[in-house]
Design a protein that fits this description.
Layout (H helix, E strand, L loop, with lengths): L1 E3 L11 E7 L3 H12 L13 E4 L11 E9 L8 E4 L8 E2 L1
Antiparallel strand pairs: 1-2, 1-3, 2-4, 3-5, 5-6
């Protein structure tokens, strides 16, 4: 699961902009969604990913890679997550949360 804090209509404190992604790493997942976010309006919110959460692993032989669903809007949370990474700004490093 990949998230940007907030959405254009409600601002950065509104429901988060979410994507369900299959990727080989959190870095690759964030790059995929960064490209998608640039296509959306972003006057009130950042066009960059703030949060990536590992929900599970895909079979290594799978060729599946990319955005499965999104954008959809809800509050992101760590409930039941194995590992998650966050950054407050695109120039900041990812940190494990």
């Amino acid at each position: 699961m990949v998230a940007r804090w907030g959405n254009e209509a409600e601002g950065p404190n509104g429901k988060d902009t979410l994507y369900l992604v299959v990727a080989r790493s959190h870095l690759f997942a964030s790059k995929l969604v960064d490209k998608e976010l640039l296509k959306l309006p972003h006057q009130c919110v950042s066009p960059k990913v703030n949060w990536v959460c590992l929900l599970g692993k895909v079979d290594e032989s799978s060729q599946l890679n990319g955005v499965l669903k999104g954008p959809f809007y809800d509050m992101s949370a760590l409930s039941g997550a194995r590992v998650a990474w966050a950054r407050e700004h695109r120039s900041k490093r990812w940190r494990v949360v």
